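Question (not urgent): is this output format expected?
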Amino acid sequence: MNARVPNLSRRQFIVGTAAVSTGLSLGLTFPFAIGSAEAALATPEVGAWVVIKPDDSVVVRVVRSEMGQGTITGLAQMVAEELECDWSKVSVEYPTPGENLKRKRVWGDFGTGGSRGIRTSEDYVRKGGAAARMMLVEAAAAQWKVPAAECVAANSVITHTPSGKKVSFGKVAAEAAKLPVPTEIKLKDPKDWKVIGQPKNRLDTYEDKVTGKQVYGIDLQFPGMLVANIRECPVFGGKVKSFDASKATAMKGVKKVLQVGDSAVAVVADTFWVAKNAMDAVEIVWDEGPNAKVSSATIKTMLQEGLTAEQAFVGNQFGDMKAAVSSAANKTESTYFYPFLNHAPMEPMNATAKWTPDSCIAWVPTQDGEASLAAVIAASGLPAEKCDVNKVNLGGGFGRRGNFQDYTTQVVRIAKEMPGTHIKLIWTREEDMTQGRYHPIMMCKLTGTFDANKNLTGVHMRLSGQSILAAVRPAVVEQQKGRDPLVFQGVFDGGEHGFGYKFPNLMVDHAMRNTHIPPGFWRGVNVNQNAIFMECFMDELADAAGVDPVEFRRKYMGEFPRNLAALNAVAERIEWNKPPAPGVFRGVAQMKAFGSYVAAACELSVQDGTKVKIHRIVAATDCGYAVNPAQIERQVSGSFVYGLSALFLEECTVKDGRIEQTNFTNFDSMRIAQMPKVETIIIQGGGKEWGGIGEPTICVAAPAVLNAIYRATGKRYRTVPLKNEGVTLV
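Got this back:
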């Protein structure tokens, strides 16, 4: 989070209409419940995670955000598995972060990013379902005056095994809610799962979403609500020098023009269109500051200097790479480049807030409700117990709506100037494009060394570019003595982003070169470029050694069986050992990211040397446990759209200190007709840990395609997007 959440455990928060000790739900209103029009008011709360109504319907509380990835369905499956309820009667709702703090963070982390939605909450979420089941069984046993051990739950019904007596969950929920939550909880053995691992229908797929009636943050309406539009200095680090609002204030429907912080001006009006037109009429003079002369060219010069700099932070090393270089009979060297990228969700940044001297409530499409709450507290000037955030459905996030709560801060500051009025702030597409938190720019120089017999003796990977953590979480970098461990995703020396090869000698280091363009967690983050750098270079090394690319990889993957299994799976499916059809060429890549082992192999053809047609991509994913195979397939395909769009079409460039791309006219995306067939292989039970899904596979699509393009054309592209090389996707 940008703002630190204060320790609020000792604070007194406003209590809802019913006390916890009554065993009923706290009378909370969850106004944007998914799949249910009514919040679970005054109904039995069986533990913190489950509300059961008299008709046996089950409401599962979910704190991770749904933005199309299916997280809420997967989390509900895990609760339902342990609860032993009827899946057809399950719906979900969002608690608020304020209520979470009041209840000593009973629901844990609200953040949804880094493919952590399921993998870092699966244990306590499943325990929440299991605890509720135990409480229901105990309540039924007490009603029958029999030992709880003689009772079992299944499909929302509790049965006393010796007598055959049955009772539904809804009949005993009120009594169960009065019981203490058990602390000794045993979870099911995976071999006994009936709901986890099944392709259940998504809980957020319903009529309103496909008919356009679904309410996202940008759609919110309140009586008397006003709408704000904002414009911030286009050069990051710049400020407002002065502004003339006379033309804007004379326009019908305009309520107020105000400066927001040091760097922005906003217009508040009856409607967005009025606010936007009035914003265009405000004459602003910017103090653009020292960054006004920065360009893509000057940034690249800085990165190039880092490729040969003496000082660098080591992320991974083995053996003696300097000795390998000095004794090499032959060397292979290549330099790669990866640009800034915008998240560009279809729904631009927006939020709604109402401020009074006694409270501040915000409605935010956010990936992290707690980060939003921290922003509300800081901007409102009110105590934490007087603030809260209602999470609204997101029209895309991809990392932009998590740590970065600038839009939340802005709307609260504006609302504070108009007490008692709901203010909805909506950014224009142009504001969204030019005020992003961009995928970090990076260059990479790779050196491979060989002996006289073409045996690989070492690999040096020098990264030069931005650090996200230096900008967003500097305390982590400080603890690491200036080093950003996140830079080394996929090529790190251990942990969940561990390396998948063991070379005789290895050095992976980073020359940190930060720019004034703020970096952010863009879907997949640093593993995107690191996979391109390493996996394309692996093909180059294979060529230098005269070895098949798949066989070359296998040679160095013996200590990494799960990486190898993913690679072998795609190689087998695409029939790597058999010649492809005439005019068709193949490429392959593998990586470990976000706790999952992934690989991709593709088939493509190239016309006239530059027109690429991708025919198919095979993707293998070993995420340990697959909660919903259908969702995994959708996520893999969706991530490939994101990764391939970036490979062929997308970049953000800098001129006069500002981002040049202002809309989808110059930040394009691939079309449906260009999307290849994706064949997903799910490797079940590859390990005991839980891996992510939303981001890992994005990284292997681009290098697999680049390697295949080289096979087809004999030209190695090391700078993306490919549109700058005249390469198009057909």
